[in-house]
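Tutorial handout. Part one gives the primary structure; part two gives the three-dimensional structure as tokens.
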Amino acid sequence: MSTPTLEKPPAVPEEIQSFTVTLSVRRFNPETDEDPHWENYDVEMYATDRILDALHKIKWEQDGSLSFRRSCAHGICGSDAMRINGRNRLACKTLIKDLDITKPVTVEAIKGLPLEKDLIVDMEPFFASFREVQPFLMAQNTPKDGKERIQTVAQRERFDDTTKCILCAACTSSCPVFWTDGQYFGPAAIVNAHRFIFDSRDDSAAVRLDILNDKEGVWRCRTTFNCTEACPRGIQVTQAIAEVKQAIMRGKP
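Part two.
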């Protein structure tokens, strides 16, 4: 009587296999630390998990004192921007499978802004620059029908890319000039100025161009493309800055 052949069980797909990932987090508690320091945490993760999931597991299961910002967890609010393996990213959009986990994954606060605690920075200097470029519609003319200001598809496309900004500061805090010059407006402020400078419904492009035609405005940009690479929304940040420079030289959008 022959012995029946046992079939090998099917391989478990990689995306549902768990494995240990080491996160090296740069910690800082202003009440007890003079300088930031690195701490390692081993967490059990799946390939499709995100860095935000790993940080949650650390906070909920290992160290409740870990501090970081997060809100929507879907790449819309922009609150969880941080440096992951030396690059600015959103923790909620960075998948474990897209990182080299053969060595510790480094996680630290974004650069160029005052560090408050762990992965949290003071965003006020960033928002101060944002407010300074007057990022809101300033239209003096009254709509003909009294209801809305009509805009063509082509007119909307002119600034459509820069409407995607979620104010995460990933672009600005990846800029070497911003790191060394606390007065530079930074890419995000210029992107948001671009959004209104080229809006056909707005009447104050000249005001914003004058603001940005400053020693700390667009002319501080060194075109390193760090900002474009860091943007989680895919905005062509460097191109937008170049278009604002051209508008200043022309004297109009």
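Part three, for discussion. The first strand starts at residue 18 and ends at 27. The chain is about 25% helix and 15% strand.
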